[in-house]
Amino acid sequence: MQTILGAGGPIADELARELNRRHTNEIRLVSRKPAAVNDTDELVTADLTDATATSRAVAGSDIAYLTVGLPLDSELWERRFPVMMRNVIDACAEHGTKLVFFDNTYMYPGTPTTQTEQTAYAPGGRKGRVRGQLATMLLDAMEAGRVEGLIGRAPEFYGPPPTKSYTNSLVFERIRAGKRPFVPVNAHTKRSLIWTPDASRALALLGNTPDAYGQTWHLPIDPNRKTYAELVALASEVTGRKLGYTVLPMLAFRLGRRFVKPLDEMYELLVRYQGDNIFDSTKFAERFPDFPVTTYREGVRQLLD
């Protein structure tokens, strides 16, 4: 049995499909309102902030994938995420279940320095501190021998609906709607983006590779990074339309955050758009050289063609 804790989002849904395609048809989906992805999925309703419910959801699982997400709300993250991680670690330790944690890069410094699996945590805000805390909780449990686990870490998403990210909502969804795309902060810095189905397929592969455990892995991206200007140019080629874009400067976000809570929550992440964002997934590429990574050109084509 392989169990997805936090079922229902684009990462979890594609993970369920990939596990069913290549690894097992014994899949359990766990969330507050789980819905089947494959015909054979087992559905379990559970709140991961409840330790008893979490233990019950994990029981009988060989591998558990923690993919749970929360709205972009710092107070909510601080209150709920550490409780969830503690409960999941305890449940996996209790039942002898391997744990695969799907993580992001918010704990890394927002500088142009290349990000590798060895990059030290230096969060620039509340959400980054929470993500660093979660990763450290799991690494400490792995080091202590409580659980056999791994971390699969991804940079910003882009991908097919219902993928949610700033790149999707500000750039590609606006292009699909016939609107002028918005570019956050700077159109000429290189971006590291992961195609969401690639992230899910890589997570399934890591979870079913015994020697991948005990490590942190950067999930695979196209290393030929593009700027937003170059992504919009690719979109022009794909759609056959001459597309421009409007840059939203830091000042616009600085003013807007006073009145719009989502902009305030986004603000701590904007430093990442001022300079190049270089997320390195060489370790994964060297270990799994046959893994097919979706190129930016192919991703844009799938989104817009």
Automatic annotation (TrEMBL):
UniProt protein name: NAD-dependent epimerase/dehydratase family protein
Organism of provenance: Metallococcus carri
Top-rank taxon: Bacteria
NAD-dependent epimerase/dehydratase domain span: 4-212
Gene3D superfamilies for the chain: NAD(P)-binding Rossmann-like Domain
